[in-house]
Design brief:
Shape: globular
Largest sheet: none
Structural class: mainly alpha
Distance between the termini: 49 Å
């Protein structure tokens, strides 16, 4: 989906053919992902995210500090909705006259906004806005629950870090749609740029505003930002898909005794194939006539039916595994059926435009998430009662290599894990309630925002954007300072950190495992070997690495 909008933006800003861009962009993902794997993805994602937020901060600064202010944008937006049709025709014309106009009310934004309170942009009372909000929530529920990259990142991280990291990550991520829309999004309408509805649906609003305000420099910044987003997301998806194929298909059904090298080879092949498939699929959607906005709204219809079954499987011991599969597929069928039926009822025809209406997309999205939940509960209660023991989950997970590096004793402690679960659950529900319910509802009494209310709104978006950029840049470096120092020390062959004591062989007590297991020697069973600190540079069995460490 991101590639669909990315290729359109590259074509608009550089003139490169969409088809060529669709296949060239994935190669940036394929090369470093297949070579570096998950660790390269994590490192690159950090760098990409820092660049994305740097451009975001620049755009906020340009719109609300360098060129305009919240008061000016407010006045422009207020004036925009008061234009008559004749004035709109004169604005969107070749020479400023009605005679040469190319204005079309369904194509360009000018005049009162249909279905908005008082026809204003400066309000939260919007029928289309409400429908889009519900569609957005359902669709993003699907992307998080069904997207393997989220699960993979959570599994790769320490449990305590994952709980806090995902919550903080959600808060930081919100700055991208919130701050970017408040700056570049509102500026496009306030400045009355000739952006068509189709171009807006393809994601061309940010590049159009950036190029209008900063010229070629703005276009370059948006291209860099877009490339970072596509490559970061694409690498995560490539690793996720390759892991599913390598572990859940290849090792599970084809080669149960696969070694690490064999799984790595399969993963690399899948990454290349998936990258090429991304380009082909993006091109297919483009040729059909679908843009980024259309696919984004449709996303929940396809994957929303998997949300409730996955939720039940993770949190309800009575959830049926077979029922989850039946509910997901049945929900998908019902969602597509209701989606098509809604298009026929509202428009009497099946076209890209009729199927892409908010009311139609909302019908499909709601049917997907609600029907699958009902089907799964009914099936689990009456057809396949289950009493699953979650303690059995870990026993059925096998590792290719027994690598538990980075996991301390507390990471295996059920009490600590339960604390992390309760910590993230309470705060997750609270944050969801604030962002999805309390905040929107608290803005309803304001009706059309006053100039001061809008200024406060802009202030929050600016603080959120700058704060998120600071957190996402500084916090990872701070939390990983010890590891970064150890790596740099090892690369430079410098002295090991003083706080890391040298292992002493004499202090390590041996334990008679045979006697301990038979319970015949209680004294030896109580003896524990102290943990041996990990050296700054990992020493492999190979002689070269050992010699290099000895030289350092």
């Amino acid at each position: 989906m991101l590639l669909l909008g990315g290729a359109a933006t590259v074509e608009a800003l550089t003139g490169m053919d969409y088809r060529l861009a669709s296949f060239l962009i994935p190669w940036g993902v394929i090369l470093y992902t297949s070579a570096g794997g998950l660790k390269a993805t994590f490192l690159a994602s950090y760098i990409h995210t820092v660049v994305i937020f740097l451009v975001l901060v620049i755009m906020i600064f340009v719109v609300y500090i360098k060129y305009f202010s919240s008061d000016l944008i407010y006045k422009f937006l207020d004036k925009t909705v008061n234009y008559s049709e004749e004035e709109c025709q004169a604005i969107y014309s070749a020479d400023g006259t009605v005679a040469t106009t190319f204005y079309d009310a369904d194509t360009y934004a000018c005049g009162p906004v249909p279905k908005n309170y008082d026809g204003s942009y400066l309000t939260m009372i919007s029928a289309d806005g409400l429908m889009f909000g519900v569609i957005n929530i359902i669709g993003n529920f699907g992307t998080v629950f069904v997207d393997q990259s989220y699960w993979q990142s959570a599994i790769a991280a320490r449990p305590s870090s994952a709980a806090k990291g995902y919550l903080l990550g959600g808060i930081v991520w919100f700055a991208i749609p919130f701050s970017l829309a408040t700056s570049l999004g509102l500026a496009s309408t306030a400045l009355m740029l000739p952006i068509t509805a189709s171009e807006a649906g393809s994601g061309l609003v940010p590049p159009a505003v950036a190029q209008h305000l900063l010229g070629n420099a703005g276009a370059v910044l948006i291209l860099i930002m877009l490339f970072m987003a596509i490559v970061s997301t694409g690498s995560a998806e490539s690793i996720a898909v390759s892991s599913l194929v390598a572990y859940d298909i290849y090792r599970e059904y084809i080669n149960p005794n696969a070694t690490g090298k064999q799984i790595l080879w399969v993963s690399r092949v899948v990454i290349v194939v998936f990258g090429l498939c991304m380009g082909a699929f993006s091109l297919a959607l483009y040729e059909i006539g679908l843009n980024l906005g259309w696919v984004y709204l449709f996303m929940g219809c396809v994957i929303g039916s998997a949300v409730a079954p996955l939720w039940f499987l993770l949190n309800w011991k009575g959830a049926s595994g077979k029922g989850a599969v039946i509910a997901a597929w049945s929900g998908l069928a019902l969602a597509l059926g209701s989606w098509i039926a809604a298009a026929l009822i509202t428009s009497g025809e099946l076209t890209v435009a009729s199927l892409g209406q908010n009311e139609v997309m909302l019908t499909g999205n709601l049917t997907a998430i609600v029907s699958s939940a009902i089907i799964h509960v009914v099936y689990s209660k009456f057809f396949d009662p289950t009493d699953y023991d979650f303690s059995e989950l870990d026993k059925n997970i096998t590792l290719v290599e027994q690598d538990l590096s980075g996991l301390g004793v507390e990471e295996h402690d059920p009490v600590e894990l339960d604390k992390s679960f309760k910590w993230i659950t309470r705060r997750g529900y609270l944050l969801t309630l604030v962002l999805a319910v309390i905040w929107p509802l608290s803005s309803v009494p304001a009706g059309v925002f006053s100039e001061y209310y809008f200024a406060f709104w802009v202030l929050i978006s600016v603080i959120w954007g700058f704060g998120a950029a600071t957190v996402i840049t500084v916090l990872p470096l701070t939390e990983s300072s010890a590891e970064i120092g150890a790596v740099l020390s090892g690369m430079g062959c410098g002295p090991k950190p003083t706080e890391e004591p040298e292992p002493t062989v004499e202090k390590i007590a041996t334990v008679d495992m045979e006697k301990t297991s038979n319970g015949t020697d209680e004294d030896s069973a109580e003896v524990e070997a102290p943990a041996v600190p990990t050296p700054a540079v990992k020493i492999d069995d190979a002689g070269d690495d050992s010699e290099e460490e000895a030289e350092c």
